């Protein structure tokens, strides 16, 4: 080959190599992949917007490139995406669609994108898109409040009664899925339950229900209700007044309340009040039978008493905004209250073929006062959602309760008296931190200490101290359709009864949640949790109290905590505006704290409390929220479960055996909205008799109906009734069977043919919008509820 030919071939090869290199480099640049990440939030509340649709379209031809749903924390990420010009389209039901142009040449962080709820304003009229009823989060169900629920409710407690699974009884006691061991949150911060009664229903935006609380909640909590408020507080003066009137002297059933706030500059001052008045005529009938020395004794008792319950709770506090990152709050309340039953007693004793009749009177003295003071500080970090919270609170309780019986035996009058004078002081210190470790991993944790002393001021035998130290943390990780949350709570506690014992406990309480999103409308959730229940003051106090001359009850300072385990699998779905879910669960309770009853050597039915054994339950739960015929909303709840008890050796000594029984519970809320501001509603609740280790409790079905009319936006009048035409209602009944005895008690309220209550409500406000700090207040259980 000639030299010139070699040179030409070499030059051609070099040119080809150069062209191939350029092609590879250009191709690498053209097809290099990047990511687009950000977070979505509600414009009004600034809360994360879960499960919104994020679509990426090419700007040139609007072709869909990829898409994803935002996670429970509102965050999303699109990857891998080639460089180019795109349009980001964000949509969610009930919100305006948001558009954002993206010129992608590097990884893009959009920051927080705020979505506005969909509404159209016209002169003199506002037409809003109706929200869907509910949606499922990674570890919670979010119930979205609609106009029908606002119209049918005056207070926050009224509104909670329309949420499936939440039961509000006639005395405004709140329970979730049959359990009262719950906490109430307002914007993520804990409040005592009475706070909800003075909360204006129109301020509530949504309600989050957590059936299986994580490590961040107290170990004894079986459920959490988080009330999310609208962010529309105003400067100047705002508030409301809620007044109620009974239609009969025999049924005084009132829950008056008011709220008043004044905001200016960096300070917001507020005060509120909620009262409870329940005066009913009650008949309590008890039949007791026991066998001793081959003689059967029957005791028939009837108490005809007047229930006189009242409570006044005054709330007050202030918010102070140092700046956007640092905020301070002071909150306090004071609550005097009483629960008394005064009236007559008739008793008949049958034994060995003879009958003895007794009659007499009962007189209760019950005076209580409780108060709380707390300070709260929050620091918001630069990244949205990241924050540090510090809380210091103190709680006081003091009471005096006694019952005097005067029994006429014909030739003499026998007088007996029993009572307690409890006192409790609790101090709580809590520090919480929430921060994002990466774009996909969120950490939430903290430490909490509780120092508690309890005593009975009329007895030196009960002086009890308990200290609990807890550290907790959880990690939330989201990838594709999966959201994984795992956490752990570690508690070290000591309990001491002066002059008797000092016990120490160390507990590790894990919890985990796995949520899988089948599609934009369906979710599957698997959850496991372990919690602990510690005894309350009235369960620990060993001093004796009586409900009649043939019974006595006392607490037990030697109680140890009992443990709960819960495993559940839940499927939830939305269809249009409707929502429904199906859940199967297994629950186990070890060393269950429970009452036991026996007949002592004096023929008195004596009740104590102890750790009696284990309880297991398998169940099925159905909830839903449905829209029917445009004007009708239907919110059903059904629960069916099988319960089994396994008693320990202590329970067996009192003749308490194992039990296996099925139970059913249902709750239904129906709301119908009409023209001219008229709304009617019905709430219904029924449960078959429920079993503890020894005691079976029962009550009649309960339902409420109401008719409400709004005037001029600021006024509302409501007419309510409970159980019309029933005349009598068993609000509490229980059966006890033991070795050689049995007992059955029914407590009935006597009602008029159609009991009615009238409510008047006036709401006012002035000034510009400002913010408020919502923070927590611990609720302390100090006394069992008695009466209706």
Task: Walk me through this protein's architecture.
This protein is mainly beta. It is built from six helices and 48 strands. The longest helix has 28 residues, at 3-30. It starts with a helix and ends in a 23-residue tail after the last strand.
Taking pLDDT < 50 over at least 5 consecutive residues as the criterion, the unreliable ranges are 15-31, 120-129, 774-782
> Helix count?
6
Principal-axis shape equals globular
Computed over alpha carbons, the radius of gyration is: 31 Å
- Share of residues in helices: under 10%
Query: What is the terminal-to-terminal distance?
Result: 113 Å
What structural class should be given to the helix and strand makeup? mainly beta
Say how many strands there are.
Answer: 48
Proportion in β-strands: over 45%
Biggest β-sheet description: 22 strands, antiparallel, barrel
Mean pLDDT: 83
- As an assembly, this protein is single chain
Brief summary:
This protein is mostly beta strands and 788 residues long. The strands form seven sheets. It has a 22-stranded antiparallel barrel. Strands 10-11-16-17-14-15 form a six-stranded mixed beta sheet.
